[in-house]
Amino acid sequence: MRLSEFIINDIKPLKGDNKISELQQLFNQLTYSHIPVKDDNNVFIGTFFETDVHCFDADKSLSDYAYALEDFYVRDTTMWLDVLEAFAQNSANIMPILNEKGDYVGYYELNDIIGLFNESPFFFEAGGVLVIEKGVNDYSFSEISQIVESNNGKLLGAFISKMQNDIVQVTLKIGNTGLNDIIQTFRRYSYNIASGHEEDSFTQSLKERSDYLTKYLNI
User: Fold this and answer.
1) Which of 11, 30, 31 is nearest to 106 (CA)?
2) Spans in the chain with pLDDT lower than 50
């Protein structure tokens, strides 16, 4: 699914000559963590954080607090996983979007991007979840895929879930087969098995946590 379908333009960026009182009122009406701002030439210059704004002098202009602008955004070509990462890194529930020319085109809402994650095969396809560990210089995704597929498994998804003390932890979602043969093969290739769950109880737990986060953000 194209992320362009989720670009929103309901809230137009404010400008430097807008009053802080206008921005405070906007935050009071919305549940967004940030509001985008343009300069007098309609060029995106950053976002104001709600908590900061409520500490500002309501009679002053946005330009008086330019030092507090947070400069984060994604491109309209950014992949959805990278967009999700940008949300997490900036503790935001709204993400400004710029095109390749640097023009502001709208924003994403966190709930929409989380929804894409919940709809991915990693969550809704039946299968087992396997968490493996190996030295950061010793593992490879090509080897991991080969091990799964050589045991007639179907790799539905994989991501690095932890990296600490030169050990990398990779979480796998595997369909089409039980995990026992795959686990034994990983052990022969010197992978440590951190966790193995038949069927999808583990991913169901992850999905429930994601659904809880979505409900929390809607409060």
Assistant:
1) 11
2) 198-203
Is residue 166 left, alpha or beta, with left meaning phi > 0 and alpha meaning psi from -120 to 50?
A: left
3-class DSSP state of 9? coil
Buried b / exposed e over 32-64, threshold 16 CB at 10 Å, is bbbbbbbeeeeebbbbbbbeebeebeeeebbee
Token pair belonging to 106: 């709208």
Q: What is the 3-state secondary structure (H, E, C) of 16-71?
A: CCCEHHHHHHHHHHCCCCEEEEECCCCCEEEEEEHHHHCCCCCCCEHHHHHHHCEC
Per-residue model confidence (pLDDT) at position 200:
40
Distance CA(149)–CA(53), nearest Å, equals: 53
Q: What is the pLDDT of residue 1?
A: 55
Residue 189 C-alpha from the chain's centroid: 32
For residue 82, the model assigns a pLDDT of 84
Hey, what are 175's tokens? 């369909």
Q: For 148-201, what is each residue's pLDDT tens digit?
A: 999 988 888 888 888 888 999 998 888 877 788 899 999 999 999 987 654 444
Tokens of 217: 């953000």
CA count, 13 A, side-chain hemisphere, 11: 25
Q: Answer yes or no: are the C-beta atoms of 44 and 72 closer than 8 Å.
A: no
